[in-house]
């Protein structure tokens, strides 16, 4: 009986996994890239048409967009990366039949944007790490063709999935104990999962958009993580971030008192501001630790790109 309850708990835990990640991908990436002088040298890149044979499908209703620039224009690398690092969230991964297990992750978008780890790694769902390497391979192909527009754009897509995996609820949406506790009230469990994801997202976005010094400085001062294989970096990021999911859920349950009992909970903005409670300090500390990982992996991947381009361009001399 106990094993059956645990199995059902795991199943419900998977089913309540929403498709969210960090908010403000673009704004945080802009803050990080400001310090990369070498990227600023790529400032006259010609915008080119899409001519690539991507073997992985996109949403049938999704058309390759140009968001502000036109074919034939010139654009810089930092603008390409910051403009398109959010593109995977714009519907390209929706309405697809990718895997028989994708229903357990909320559909095809969830399957592509998360790497859900349970039972100490025995159960793994989602292919976000594979999307990282997939778009890196397309970026490498574009750069080798000297198509720098699509090289940097595919790199931005790849970077998005890596950044996703530094968000704790993207690797483990809710403590199993809470699911088992409410196992006969699935509607409540789903509402709690959504509330906790949205609240973390709203809180973190508020701090970034309102330029909370601790948040901004964490992004700026984070050291780059050494990346040798982008896919492996994504897997490592997920294993690290999932460790904080349980503690975040616990703190949010205490700090946002109605979060577990109110459907479509919306946290009061005054709780986002200068409340200097011990609980809020602990909350900020955990979020900042994971945003340091967000920045560390972003910077490490930029360094990985730099090394690749130096070798590629060195071959031309």
From TrEMBL:
Coiled coil: none annotated. GO terms for molecular function: phospholipase C activity; zinc ion binding. This is Phospholipase.
